[in-house]
Amino acid sequence: MGNDNVLLSSGTVYDGLGSPGRTADVLVRDGRIASISDVPLKVPSAMRIDCTGRAVAPGFVDTHAHSDVVPLLPDPQPFKLLQGVTTEVVGNCGISFAPLDHAALESAADLVGNLAKGVALEPGGFAALLDRLADAGPTNNMAMLVGHNALRLSANGTEPELGPSALARMERLAAEAFEAGAVGFSTGLIYPPGSFAGIEELTALARVAARFGGLYATHMRDEGRRLEAAMAEAVAVARQAGTRLQISHCKVAGRGNHGKAAALVSMLEAARLDGVDVYGDQYPYAAGSTVLLALLPTRATAGGATALTERLRDPSVRASLRSDADRGEPGDGLWAACTPDDVLIIDHTDAGVVGLTLAEVCRLRDEHPFEALCRLVGEDPRAEAALTLMAENDVRTIMASPLVGIGSDSGLPLGLQHPRTWGSFPTVLGRYVRELAVLNLPEALRKATSFGARQFRLTGRGALLPGYIADVTVFDPQKIGHEADYLDPSGPVTGVHTVLLAGEVVVDDGVFNGSRSGRILRHGASTIAS
């Protein structure tokens, strides 16, 4: 719990529901919003924070993050609080670090271990992971999805075809995760082994989510040339399973597909009109970030990282993979969606290539781009890259849709990560609200707060209303922003003044107090307690 009484005085208060701001005082008592008054309040016992000239809003809800193991880092990490984010949804894109047995953990570490770099992963069930995170002490609140890849690795290993009892085991593991507090089920259908799944498998697991009131969040099978088919598959899974649907990081990827953003938005609208409870999330950048092996056809990864590196040593296999990659169909990877100049290497065991584009690596080594890609992935299957795949006009079209909220898709705040890790929310409020007027401030704040709280059933959060938990962000709309680029991504956020977690002031005058005051938010549990 935080301070017994905090008085946020004379700020412009936004409820997070899309209403215009109004000058008011907000009284916080015992971790909750006690009152919001248009008449100045006098509470002598309260800690008074003057919010004149600043916006007072609900704490931001990051609907799409990969910060799963951040609480296990040795020091508290305020990179989300300093943006005004008080709650994150993690376990996205089919990637959660439970449930995983010993063999599954080894495979996961080989393929996506950079999402846990610096942290010793442990085998175990979903409940054990949530307990471990809660015991370590999150810096901000976290709610977790159970990842399809974790379920598949534990039930079936890295093999493409499911064994006779694998789906039933996946369903049992998923049910255990929901009983432990998972808020939904996620897929990453460009990442192995989840990429090998058919619609029947996905629907069966989404039905488990529906039984527990969870949603289905998906990194779709294709976000470019076959976007329409991928969206149709996602909607069909949600409809057949009877679950809510979250389309992860809505985008139109690949230069040849630019201009299709209006079609994506129309598909979201049509699905809602047809009875599917679907929304999406988006980060405010034209470049994404993922593992370098996502550029390769998914068949290259069958059997795990060892089999992958062996394949990539074979010239005939590389030639076959290149033929598929050039084709650019679902399952063929992202190679055809970008050029070597669009691929910036941000993590690799060879430090000499970090910060270089694939084109620059090719010039240094006099290699063909696809051969260079295969060599780099073979040397480090966990290598990561920032990929410039989107057009700015498409980013703005998607952002303007009321059906798409804000999610950072952030990784760990270590090394040369994508700037979205440190700056997604200030970038929306600074660049896209203040500078470009793609959104007005009340609507942007709705997308940043109640939108995600509603979709992920984060009861009592996401709005400034009496009785709600006092997760609050105070910022200057004229100053909020993030000055950074892909080679210097972790620059400071400007304009965020005060952040409260359940009534405790954890950021004051832009300075983090060092506390680990966040909570693990479990579906069906108390809204404040872990």
Present the secondary structure layout.
Blueprint lengths: L4 E9 L8 E8 L2 E6 L9 E4 L4 E4 L1 E3 L22 E6 L11 H11 L13 H11 L4 E7 H9 L9 H15 L3 E5 L10 H13 L3 E5 L7 H15 L3 E3 L13 H13 L4 E5 L4 E5 L13 H8 L2 H13 L15 E5 L10 H8 L3 H11 L4 E5 L3 H9 L3 E3 L13 H16 L5 H8 L1 H6 L16 E4 L5 E2 L10 E2 L1 E6 L2 E5 L2 E2 L18
Parallel strand pairs: 1-4, 1-5, 6-7, 7-8, 8-9, 9-10, 10-11, 11-12, 12-16
Antiparallel strand pairs: 1-2, 2-3, 5-17, 13-15, 14-15, 17-20, 18-19, 20-21, 21-22
Helix pairs in contact: 1-3, 3-4, 4-5, 5-6, 6-7, 7-12, 8-11, 13-14
For the sheet with most strands, the description reads: 9 strands, mixed
Ends distance: 12 Å
Number of helices: 15
Q: Residue ranges: pLDDT <50 for 5 or more in a row? A: none
Shape: globular
Radius of gyration equals 22 Å
Approximate helicity band:
25-40%
What class would the helix/strand composition place it in? alpha/beta
Task: Describe the overall structure.
The model has no long low-confidence stretch (mean pLDDT 94). By secondary structure, the protein is of the alpha/beta class. Strands 1, 2, 3, 4, 5, 17, 20, 21 and 22 form a 9-stranded mixed sheet that branches. An 8-stranded parallel sheet has the order 6-7-8-9-10-11-12-16. Strands 13-15-14 form a 3-stranded antiparallel sheet, with no helix packed on it. The longest helix has 16 residues, at 420-435. It has helices at residues 102-112, 126-136, 148-156, 166-180, 199-211, 227-241, 261-273, 305-312, 315-327, 358-365, 369-379, 392-400, 420-435, 441-448, 450-455, and strands spanning 5-13, 22-29, 32-37, 47-50, 55-58, 60-62, 85-90, 141-147, 184-188, 215-219, 245-247, 278-282, 287-291, 343-347, 384-388, 404-406, 472-475, 481-482, 493-494, 496-501, 504-508, 511-512. It is globular, with a radius of gyration of 22 Å. A hairpin with a 2-residue loop joins β2 and β3. 31% of the residues lie in helices and 20% in strands. The chain is built from 15 helices and 22 strands. This is Amidohydrolase family protein. Residues 49-507 form the Amidohydrolase domain.
